[in-house]
Amino acid sequence: MLESRRSREKALKSSPLPRDYLKMVEEVFTTNFDEGLQLLEKHQPSSRFEARGEVFLDEVVLAVSVASPGKLAATTAYASVDFDPKASSPTVQDLLEACVDALGTLFNELLDPKKPDQIEALSLESLSALEKVPFDWAKVESGRFKVFLKVDKANPSLDQLADDWLRQNDPSLKDEDQEEQKEASELFVTGEKAKRGGGNLH
Question: Is the pTM above the cut of 0.90?
Fold first, then answer.
C-alpha cells in the first residue's frame, strides 16, 4: 500500500489502480522523458519508470518511480489529491489526469537533459544533492485541482513483491485483492478510452 497524505485511520482501506492504467502512465513518462532517462542510464543502468496507485476513501495517490534492477532504492514521486467518492464530479480519472500533469512537471525538472549533474544526483542513494525537491507534501496547482507532491527514495516495487508473495501464500488475501481490483476498475475507464482522455505532459 502506498503512503497516504490523509489520516491513517481513513486510509486503511484502499483499492489499487488497474494495471493497464498504470502501464499506460509508464509508457507516457518513458516517451516524454526518454532523453533524460538515457542520461540517467549512464549512472544507473536499465533505469525505467514504474507506476503505482491507490484509491483511498478520501484520497487518490499516484506514484511514479525511476528504478533500476538490483537497486534497493528508487526515486519515487508521489501525487495526492482529495477525493469524494459520493460526488459525481470530479471523477477519479479527472483527479488522476491532474496527478499525471503535476508529476510530469516535477520529472521535467528532475530529468532535464540540460542539467546532467541533477540527473546524476538521481542515481545516488540520498536525495540531499537534489534541488527544489519536496521532501514533505507540498501543494501545487494542476489545472483546477490542488495536488500535493512529495519525493523520496522508497521503492514501491519491492513492497509490491512482498505483497504479491503474501497473496500467493494466503488465499484470503488473493480473493481480497481481486475484489479490490474490481472495485478500482469500476471507478474509471481504462484501456484505449483512457488513453484518449488521459493526462497530458508538457
Answer: no
Confirm if 193 and 96 have CB atoms less than 8 A apart.
Answer: no
Residue 101 CA to residue 142 CA, distance in Å, equals: 7
Query: Where do the structural domains in the chain lie, given as residue ranges?
Result: 14-196
* Rounded Cα–Cα distance for residues 38 and 101 (Å): 22
Strands of 138-142's sheet in order across: 14-16, 48-56, 59-67, 75-82, 145-152, 138-142
Give the integer Cα–Cα distance in Å for 155 and 144.
Answer: 30
Burial of 85 (0-12, 13-18, 19+ CB in 10 A): exposed
The residue length of the chain stands at 202
pLDDT-based confidence at 6, cuts 50/70/90?
confident
